[in-house]
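We modelled the chain as a single entity of 105 amino acids. Its sequence is:
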Amino acid sequence: MSEAMNVTEVIRQLECEWDLDGFFGRLRDGVLDATALKRTKKLVKSIRFGRAKLIDRRLVSLLWFIPVFMEWQRERVHEVSGELDRLERAIRYFQDLLQDVLGLP
């Protein structure tokens, strides 16, 4: 992901997942959509910064908030589908993945 065009496209796709019909938008309603989850995992996993010293601020904001937001949705997911085990696995997946993508402090 070295070209600005790729960063722009990843940001656009992540923003779509945060929209009402995207993975995070549906999760806000308590729906843990398996297809959207798979798509979002694939997108985040595709991010590679190589030797970049700076990362687009918007991209970082879309990424770092993922596990926090997902944790906040526990009650809604429990009420709507009861799929807390799947949600917990997804949260852990994104925590680990973001460590790989963004690195540790």
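As a brief sanity check on the tokenised model: Residues 1-5 have pLDDT under 50 and may be disordered. The chain has one domain: 4-102.
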